[in-house]
Amino acid sequence: MKKIFVLFVFMSLICPIYSEENASTISPDGEYTFVYQTNGKINKFINGQDYDLVIYDAKSRKTIKKITSLVWVDKIKWSPDSKRLMVQMHTRYSSLINLYPINSNKTLYVDLWNYVLKNEEKYGFEPTEKNPYPNLVFLEWDKDTENMIADYSFTDKKGEHRGKLLYDIKNGKIIKLIDDKLADSK
Fold it and tell me: Binning pLDDT at 50, 70 and 90, where does residue 120 land?
């Protein structure tokens, strides 16, 4: 109980007003915590507030990692092994998912469009010449493998495809698309 109170006081000093935009959370193993908060800057691209995601060691309170200039973040979730943070963001045209490993500067991008282009024949896709603005929405971590499951949608010449995908978080690759269906078909 004392540890939780100390952590609460620490987080209150860093992030005095609680809201969805500056919420903090402790990793599943209790080793880390993060704060998503405004950095006081204006992002010129969107003409709006700029945000940082700061990851702390829960015991020493030292900054482990700082990810800057995040905008339009919808969801932030720890991986079950506490080694990565999933950040779901959106733009004017699409939504995307990035994975940030705690002990690495490498960011894993869930790159649905390149996967579609590489697997056209396998799935029978007919990509358009321009990016179809794929949308990704985090659903859950696969409890058996610690892979990520996400909803996806994108448009090709046939129409809008929807389904789920399985993403290998250790190797940074889409494993497969599940239940791909055209939105108009039944």
Answer: confident
Q: φ, ψ for residue 6 (rounded to 5)? A: -60, -45
Q: What single-letter amino acid sits at 84?
A: R
Cβ 94 vs Cβ 109: under 8 Å: no
- Any residues with CB less than 8 A from the CB of 26 and at least 6 apart, and which? 7, 32, 33, 58
Query: Domain range spanning residue 162?
Result: 72-186
| Judgement on whether residues 132 and 178 belong to the same structural domain of the protein | yes
Domain end (from 71, 93, 124): 71
Residues 9 and 54 in one domain: yes
- Backbone phi, psi, residue 12, to 5°: -65, -35
Q: Which residues pair with 182 in a beta bridge?
A: 161
What predicted TM-score, i.e. pTM, was given to this entire model?
0.74
